[in-house]
Amino acid sequence: MHHEVRFPQYLNKPFQVLVFESDDMAFMVIGYILAQKFGGVFWSVMFLLPWGYGRLKNRYPRGFLRHTLYFTGIAPLKRYPHFFQNKFID
Hints:
Largest sheet: 2 strands, antiparallel
Distance between the termini: 31 Å
Radius of gyration: 18 Å
Helix content: 40-55%
Number of strands: 2
Shape: extended
Mean pLDDT: 80
């Protein structure tokens, strides 16, 4: 049985599309969908939302958004114990 796994050249380098990281692209797509639906000022949101998130992201360490979503209870972290779990079995 032959399993081939590809690793990126640099493990700590984030995945990018053109010059945008994947999370920046997600905010840009959300802005685009809002602009298509509502028009008007939302076309500027398509650019301001990723710009603002990028400025916020540069102030905090990697994984800030994912951990914020976890602590607010919006998104669970996969393969991690629950936040309030205090007993572990090895």
